[in-house]
């Protein structure tokens, strides 16, 4: 019994001090525990975030040299992974890309747009000198315009949860090192996909190319090639708002119908059904053309030159008919530029992005009031992106071609 | 005797009254006689003036279609005559040309200039819409720029004896129905022939095409084709005054020497000795071209496009290499206009003549101080005009080609 009492006393002595401590500092201890649990939870969350998830990507196999791009020139891969959190600034290796000077932004891509200029980037092009216009690298993800959600950001103007449009990569998640090519989306009463088109780069292209480059005046005669595309459909509507006479050309009767009955063009024609574009233009423009919004180049440009009026203006936006040729078609009627004192002004919209706020002020009321309409051709799934993109060069799209990567 | 006295009295009576009248009104009679003599003299002078004198003319035989013009496409005739006084307004037949509403001006032509644009007028060209740019009529006198003396004028701003430059006909005397194409010459301390060149249309063309169309900036890289011609030699000097780096191309080593040693171009080359214009331009412009003053078109334009810099400007003045071809050469590198956001602006100097006073204020001190020099290639005699004019298209002229019709 004595032995038992001694053991019990020892046992009590063993717990006595901790117990006293517990009683004395109980409150503090409970707090410390809470902090510890909190830290553990955050650590687990961080680990989950830092865990690499699969990142589907569209890759250019090799340069497409002077040929129509095929779906097989691109491939969709599922082997890449990405961490859904930027590394802590102290963790990062001190290389050029992840240097703390680079304001990394991590995006979840929602919508990607298919644009004709992307064909040019499938070749090795030099001298374009804007970040969004650098040639693709064979074996790497292609880039383009898109709408995305910010998952993490080291840029002070962007935070997790923000929606943006701008230059991103054709993949599910993108680590952007040049956040200056991203524009924050403030107005979400408009369909988000519109920021790949009417409220994004093509919208700005139409706006700058028409209002800034063409110096339009009420009553002038306006011709638009590739008029049913992402840019052309808007230029035509801008020209109608300005009080111009507007004719568009497109590559199918369905598109011609769209131009006349949806976008309000005065006239439209299917260039594939015209034997002589010069004759076609003379039919629609007996008085000649004041403004030509150039999207196609080649034979169309040659025919337009013959039909331009004195002091006409040509807004050089693109020459899609030439992108896939072994050698561009020679344009022979350039003397008309001098005879008629015409201004041909090539432009690229990134030079004009400082006008974006002014553009939004103009566009938003028109869209909300239904005074400017927009037609999109939406494809679901990044895996269907290559077909959508190469389809552009066969005129398969019906309105602005968009690829949905994720709806939210 | 009585009979004799009667006869004498009758005879005295016959002269008495006139004699008395003569004595009484002698002074008035002498005045009337003076007036009569004066009127007779003026009448004789008017008759001399109204007498038709021979008027040598240069005639276009027939349209020159897509070929190098030959001297035999033009002919000099001596059969035409002209009255060296305008008909009195009341005398004139009420037709369109001599209607009193038309402010006729009669000119004695002194100097005529040979200009590349005249080749275009040897074909049936439409749509140029400036009086000086209407096609020639086969069988009729050709027109062009010249310096002339006013012999008679129904225009309130011009009087006999005035010197003018502007659009006139290739003949000794011209009846001008559009005096708005004539500019009065106020500064005669400069050689009169300069008003066909440095102080006339080519000077204005160089001035407008460089300063107004090209928006030049100090330090920019400037290339000028046909640089030893009437316009090119001035553009190069303007560009040097602006602090640009200037290279010109020409068609002979003598002209290249002129560009470098007389006009102060930084570099110049003989395009006929270059196998590859693209290579030549890369040699002279390793950094590319900011401003191209386009005088020749075709292959040169194609090579220039490849070498233009971002936001470059091309002043479309002429395309002399294309004027005589069966079909213009196709220009294939137009996509560069878009890649590099280039502005190609065709212009024609008559659109800018309102700037002539500003131009004179700029040019006169530079000429007087020898800061701008000018080289002319002067041919004596209207009969040598056709050879001088067609020689222009073979590059025979050495500087500004002028034809002297009369020295005063």
UniProtKB/TrEMBL annotation, chains A, B:
<dbReference type="InterPro" id="IPR041694">
    <property type="entry name" value="ADH_N_2"/>
</dbReference>
<feature type="domain" description="Oxidoreductase N-terminal">
    <location>
        <begin position="105"/>
        <end position="179"/>
    </location>
</feature>
<dbReference type="InterPro" id="IPR045010">
    <property type="entry name" value="MDR_fam"/>
</dbReference>
<dbReference type="InterPro" id="IPR011032">
    <property type="entry name" value="GroES-like_sf"/>
</dbReference>
<dbReference type="Pfam" id="PF00107">
    <property type="entry name" value="ADH_zinc_N"/>
</dbReference>
<dbReference type="InterPro" id="IPR013149">
    <property type="entry name" value="ADH-like_C"/>
</dbReference>
<dbReference type="InterPro" id="IPR036291">
    <property type="entry name" value="NAD(P)-bd_dom_sf"/>
</dbReference>
<feature type="domain" description="Alcohol dehydrogenase-like C-terminal">
    <location>
        <begin position="230"/>
        <end position="363"/>
    </location>
</feature>
<protein>
    <recommendedName>
        <fullName>Enoyl reductase (ER) domain-containing protein</fullName>
    </recommendedName>
</protein>
<dbReference type="GO" id="GO:0032440">
    <property type="term" value="F:2-alkenal reductase [NAD(P)H] activity"/>
</dbReference>
<keyword id="KW-0560">Oxidoreductase</keyword>
<dbReference type="Pfam" id="PF16884">
    <property type="entry name" value="ADH_N_2"/>
</dbReference>
């Amino acid at each position: 019994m004595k032995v038992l009492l001694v053991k019990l006393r020892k046992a009590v002595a063993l717990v006595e001090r901790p117990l006293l401590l517990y009683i004395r500092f109980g409150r503090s201890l409970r707090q410390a525990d809470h902090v510890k649990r909190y830290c553990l939870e955050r650590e687990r969350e961080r680990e989950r975030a830092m865990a690499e998830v699969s990142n589907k990507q569209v890759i250019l196999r090799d340069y497409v040299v002077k040929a129509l791009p095929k779906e097989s020139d691109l491939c969709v891969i599922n082997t890449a992974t990405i961490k859904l959190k930027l590394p802590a600034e102290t963790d990062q290796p001190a290389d050029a890309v992840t240097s703390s000077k680079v304001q990394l932004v991590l995006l979840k891509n929602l919508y990607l747009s298919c644009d004709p200029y992307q064909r040019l980037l499938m070749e090795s092009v030099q001298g374009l000198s804007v970040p969004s216009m650098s040639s693709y690298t064979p074996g790497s993800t292609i880039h383009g315009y898109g709408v995305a959600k910010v998952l993490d950001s080291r840029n002070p103007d962007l935070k997790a949860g923000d929606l943006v449009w701008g230059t991103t990569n054709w993949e599910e998640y993108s680590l952007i090192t040049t956040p200056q090519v991203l524009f924050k989306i403030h107005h979400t009463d408009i369909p988000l996909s519109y920021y790949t088109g009417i409220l994004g780069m093509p919208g700005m292209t139409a706006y700058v190319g028409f209002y800034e480059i063409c110096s339009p005046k009420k009553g002038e005669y306006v011709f638009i090639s590739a008029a049913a595309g992402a840019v052309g459909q808007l230029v035509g509507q801008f020209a109608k708002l300005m009080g111009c006479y507007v004719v568009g050309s497109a590559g199918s009767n369905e598109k011609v119908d769209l131009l006349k009955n949806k976008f309000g063009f005065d006239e439209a024609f299917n260039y594939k059904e015209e034997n002589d574009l010069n004759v076609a233009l003379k039919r629609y423009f007996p008085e000649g053309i004041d403004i030509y919004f150039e999207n196609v180049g080649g034979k169309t440009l040659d025919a337009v030159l013959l039909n331009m009026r004195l002091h006409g203006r040509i807004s050089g936006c693109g020459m899609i008919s030439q992108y896939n040729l072994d050698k561009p078609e020679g344009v022979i009627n350039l003397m008309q530029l001098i005879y008629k004192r015409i201004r041909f002004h090539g432009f690229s919209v990134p030079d004009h992005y400082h006008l974006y706020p002014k553009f939004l002020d103009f566009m938003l009321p028109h869209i909300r009031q239904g005074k400017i309409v927009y037609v999109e051709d939406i494809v679901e799934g990044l895996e269907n992106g290559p077909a959508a993109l190469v389809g552009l060069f066969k005129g398969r799209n019906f309105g602005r071609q968009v690829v949905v990567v994720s709806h939210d």
